[in-house]
Each structure stands twice: as structure tokens, then as C-alpha cells.
Specification:
The protein is of the alpha/beta class. The chain has nine helices and eight strands. The protein has helices at residues 6-9, 13-17, 33-38, 63-74, 92-106, 123-138, 171-174, 203-212, 249-256; strands at 20-23, 46-51, 79-84, 110-114, 144-148, 163-170, 191-196, 217-220. The chain has an eight-stranded parallel beta barrel with strand order 1-2-3-4-5-6-7-8, surrounded by four helices. The chain is globular.
Length: 262
């Protein structure tokens, strides 16, 4: 699939014109029922939500995750399976196997490739992975790929995926961050910013930074914690700041405005 325009990314013109949410993965539906229910609220400007069953698809289908994913897809929300690339150290076969499980069990619309490498030297391996995932998704009416770098990668990575996560980290770093010059050659819908520890009083400033730096998809939260914490731990507590709704969810939804889920 090409990766150059808003039509190629699958985002609507409406989504390309304003900020929308990318939810990097809430806790298990049994631990975060409110969070999963909120994602199906009509009018929420949601670009996609990530399903992470057990640091991937798990060993067998989970009926609770199957139900949650089904409700999202029925509401028109794009569901992405979580694939951990382990900064390039994970075997290709394991990644492909997990991708097949996500598609077979949960009918995902694409994948978030978390902890994706950023160096040019790793580009061929990641290109091989994304090309294989595209083939897998071609038969399922899906095909949205997000590379979860967490920082600006080599510019050629923009050629092999629909979106790049060019920032993932705390507000203390985000507010002083700078965008790579090459990103100006691409529209905002190509870039994702995930920021934790954003105080309510700085929410407007955070959104100005996102727009100024050319990000089209965001997730801001006032929760804090270690993003690298084990998914088997307290997923809804302080281990993973993205595991639960921010305290100002209603406020940020209203500020961005109603949207159309794809």
C-alpha cells in the first residue's frame, strides 16, 4: 500500500484537518470497562485504538477482548493489534505469528509496531516486516500500520507505514521538544504524539505544541508512570500511564470537537 496521502492512510478528510485520538492500549477490559466503553461513544474524534491482550495477542483467544474489539469495530473504530518489535531484536517469525493471531482471533484492522527501531541500519528489516503485514491485511479489508518509534526515526521510515509515533514520553520532555525538519514534507495525519503527565492547566499548551509540530493523532493524559512496565502488572495503575482514561477526558474530547470514527 502507498503511504503518502490522507487517502492512503485511511483517515478521512475531516480527520486530517484536525487533531484526533490514537489510544495506545488500555488495560484489559475486565480491569478498565469504563475506558473501553468510552471508546464507542458517538462523536469521539478517534483515529484508532490498540488492543494488547497479554503483551501481544496472548496464547489463546480471550472472550473479553474479543467482545471489546467487536464493539469497537461495530462502532466504526479502527482496532490495531499490538506487536512489540523489541527495538529490532525480536525474531521475524514471532512477529508474523502474533500478527496472524490478532487477525484470526480479533479481526484487527492493522497493527501498532511498538518499540520500533529508528536507525537507518534497521530499516530493511522493518521494511520486510511491514511489507509482510500488508500482505496479511490485504485479505481482511484492513491495512493501517503505525510504527511506534517514540522519537524521530530516519526519514525513510515514513515510506513504509501509514503513521509514525515521533514522540512518546513525559510532558516535561514534550514541552521542550523539537520536531525533525524532514517531517515538514508530510501532512499531519502521518504523525502521532503520545504524552503522559500533562497537567490539566497545560492541556491547551500541549495541543498547541502538537499542532505546531504537525501531529494529527494524539493521546494526552495526566497520569504518570513508567511506560516500560510489565503489561502483566498493574496495567491500570502507575505502571502504564496510558492504561486508563485521563482525568480530563471529557474536556479534551470537547476541545478537539466531534469527529467521525473510521
Amino acid at each position: 500500500m502507498p503511504h503518502l496521502t490522507s487517502m492512503d492512510t485511511g483517515l478521512s478528510a475531516t480527520g486530517a484537518e484536525r487533531l484526533g485520538f490514537g489510544v495506545p492500549g488500555y488495560a484489559h477490559p475486565l480491569l478498565a470497562p469504563v475506558e473501553w466503553a468510552e471508546l464507542t461513544r458517538p462523536g469521539t474524534p478517534l483515529h484508532w485504538a490498540v488492543l494488547n491482550v497479554a503483551d501481544g495477542p496472548g496464547a489463546r483467544p480471550d472472550p473479553h477482548c474479543l467482545e471489546a474489539a467487536g464493539k469497537l469495530r461495530n462502532a466504526g473504530v479502527r482496532v490495531l493489534g499490538h506487536l512489540d518489535l523489541c527495538h529490532g531484536s525480536r525474531p521475524f517469525g514471532e512477529i508474523v505469528s502474533d500478527a496472524h493471531r490478532f487477525l484470526d482471533w480479533y479481526k484487527v484492522d492493522g497493527y501498532l509496531l511498538d518499540r520500533c527501531p529508528t536507525d537507518r541500519a534497521d530499516l530493511p528489516a522493518v521494511r520486510r516486516t511491514t511489507a509482510t503485514l500488508e500482505v496479511i491485511l490485504e485479505h481482511a479489508d484492513g491495512g493501517h500500520l503505525v510504527l511506534g518509534h517514540g522519537s524521530h526515526p530516519h526519514h525513510r521510515y515514513a515510506e513504509i507505514a501509514d503513521q509514525l509515533v515521533t514522540f512518546s514520553g513525559p510532558w516535561a520532555e514534550y514541552r521542550w521538544s523539537q520536531v525533525a525538519e524532514w517531517t515538514a514534507d508530510h501532512p499531519p495525519e502521518r504523525f502521532v504524539h503520545l504524552v503522559h503527565g500533562v497537567p490539566r492547566t497545560h492541556l491547551d499548551e500541549a495541543m498547541r505544541i502538537a499542532r505546531w509540530q504537525g501531529a494529527g493523532t494524539i493521546f494526552f493524559t495526566d497520569r504518570t508512570g513508567d511506560r516500560t512496565g510489565s503489561p502483566e502488572g498493574d496495567r491500570i495503575g502507575q505502571t502504564n500511564p496510558f492504561a486508563a482514561l485521563p482525568g480530563y477526558w471529557d474536556e479534551i474530547v470537547s476541545q478537539i470537537g466531534p469527529g467521525v470514527s473510521e
